[in-house]
Prior knowledge:
- The protein has one helix spanning 48-70, and strands spanning 7-8, 15-16.
- By secondary structure, it is mostly helical.
- Bound molecules: zinc ion (ZN) (2 copies).
Amino acid sequence: xxxxxxxxxxxxxxxxxxxxxxxxxxxxxxxxxxxxxxxxxxxxxxxxxxxxxxxxxxxxxxxxxxxxxxxxxxxxxxxxxxx
Length: 83
Ligand SMILES: [Zn+2]
Ligand SMILES: [Zn+2]
């Protein structure tokens, strides 16, 4: 859903279905966005905080889906066997 949703652009006011950044000439970048992000790898999608944010979003999405289908995970909180 997020990956193909056109995102309204702050610069030109036009929704962009791909990377929302622009080239130096002012044209749309047009590169495919990185997963869970609004820009391509050339426009900051590869920066550590961007990757962390995307991973967190995807993790939350996955967790939500897992909870929806299985309910609360049982037996996850095992006590560590410490001597
Ligand atoms: Zn734009
Ligand atoms: Zn780009």
